[in-house]
Design brief:
2 copies of one chain form a homodimer.
Chain A: H1 7-26, H2 29-36, H3 40-47, H4 50-70, H5 79-96, H6 98-110, H7 112-120, H8 125-140, H9 149-165, H10 167-173, H11 178-200
Helix pairs in contact in A: 1-2, 1-4, 1-6, 5-9, 5-11, 6-7, 8-9, 9-11
The structure holds a DNA duplex.
Amino acid sequence: MDTEHNAEERLLTAAIEVFCNRGYDGARTQEIADLAGISKASLHYYFRSKELLFRKAVQKVFSLIIGNVARRISEESSFEVVIRQLVEGYFEMFIHFRTQAVFFFTEMMKHEELLDEIVKGIDRSVLLNGLMLRFQKEREEGKIIDMEPVDLLVNIIAMCGYPILAEPLLKRVLTLSNDEYQTMLNRRKEMVVDFVLRAILKEKE
Amino acid sequence: MDTEHNAEERLLTAAIEVFCNRGYDGARTQEIADLAGISKASLHYYFRSKELLFRKAVQKVFSLIIGNVARRISEESSFEVVIRQLVEGYFEMFIHFRTQAVFFFTEMMKHEELLDEIVKGIDRSVLLNGLMLRFQKEREEGKIIDMEPVDLLVNIIAMCGYPILAEPLLKRVLTLSNDEYQTMLNRRKEMVVDFVLRAILKEKE
DNA sequence: GGTCAGTTTAACCAATTAGTCAAACCATAG
DNA sequence: CTATGGTTTGACTAATTGGTTAAACTGACC
């Protein structure tokens, strides 16, 4: 726990950690306060209620994650490079924000109205206008196979995210040790890029 | 709530529903008992504690899900057909058991020791020996590209499962209406099969 | 009918927990 | 110094909730 910043910031940071690890219902305001090194009464002074604190925490997590992705896919490089950057970007995002991502899947399932509020506030132009148009352009130029850009994007995100999100389960079902699983994850970055390019590029070398 | 079966079964069914919707911490034993139409005291009579009931519930859910997958991929058809069956099988599994699958990602992250116990009890021969060997065979015969069978399987599961698990989030980030999202999911079954086959088949038509 | 094991429940208990509040603690301006 | 505003907290409360218990109920078997 950092002890530098002011009380409000420290509480929010602590809240993110506790909510991500324990979920909304499992989180205790006392634990958040303790982690921040501040009394529980102060927590209510700043955020009024657990629910309000939760909202602020979710918003902050989401803006952190989103910022991280958008930064990487604004390039104007060759198509292959764009795919590679995209895969690497999502991969590292999911590794870095694994607990937060899992947290989103579950908590947001229960608090869907919060998602509306949050997604409304983000800038999707990079993703939707930048990236999707680029996919569309390649398609129209006949360089890639005829598929919906959105399907391609979802495929990429899925192949990057799923093995990280489902690690505890996959590891056991596939009977892989921690090391073996890590090896698999390491080779996936390159593998997914190749897999995607083979699936969509039209010219057969 | 079915009222046919005996108390124990009804409690377990109710527990699965409540745990999947609310998570372990969010679930109330009273709600489970009410849903089963049985007193909370009886719940403790049969299962001793919330924790024990939770374990039984998780085990039952898992065996339901697993059974559903294994049944579909035991075919000895052509490779293309195997891929298609696999994709359709996982797709329908994720749609049918969506809340349960999300539940697994979150709760099992917190109770990893439970996963060990559960996965130990299942039969992985169909998946690992049957399917993986088939992939391996095709690879050795030079029909498909040189890639690890496990990577291929993970890619398929990921592309089937992720869009369903992440629906609430994806729907909003991609600014798709419910109908549009449904349309996307519907075309994915065919699309993923094509995508995979293009990525792995060696001969260029 | 009587008994006995298994089942069911209303009433209760102890522990936990989100939220409150009045008093104390600053810092800064007058 | 003192007054004032924002800040901080220990002590408290009301409500919830998992779990217990003793008593009642049920049906099978003698």
